[in-house]
Design goal:
By secondary structure, the protein is an all-alpha fold. The protein has one domain (2-74). 79% of the residues lie in helices and 0% in strands. It contains three helices and no strands. The protein has helices spanning 2-26, 30-33, 38-74. Helix 1 runs antiparallel to helix 3. The chain starts with a helix and ends in a 10-residue tail after the last helix. The model has no long low-confidence stretch (mean pLDDT 92).
């Protein structure tokens, strides 16, 4: 269970970093004014939406896995779930 939580956290970190890069590119005003970048803009907006959806789904997975880990800890099935 702890491995699942840690794996999700790594995935979230990676996706958030990727989203930050996409949003940084979208913050560049030239992408909106350059007609030759129209396809790039469309791809970035699509990618942004996909990343946000993936992050939302993983956050739910993380909450569920964290809850299960806490229940296991409280029931005594594991000692210290946060110990590395």
């Amino acid at each position: 269970m702890l491995d699942k939580v840690r794996n999700i956290e790594k995935q979230l970190e990676s996706l958030r970093s990727e989203l930050k890069n996409v949003e940084s590119t979208l913050a560049d005003e030239t992408i909106y004014s350059d007609p030759q970048r129209k396809n790039e803009l469309a791809d970035l907006v699509k990618n942004q939406g996909e990343l946000k959806s993936a992050i939302d789904a993983l956050e739910w997975d993380w909450m569920e896995a964290s809850e299960a880990l806490e229940v296991a800890h409280c029931s005594g099935r594991i000692r210290n779930p946060l110990q590395h």
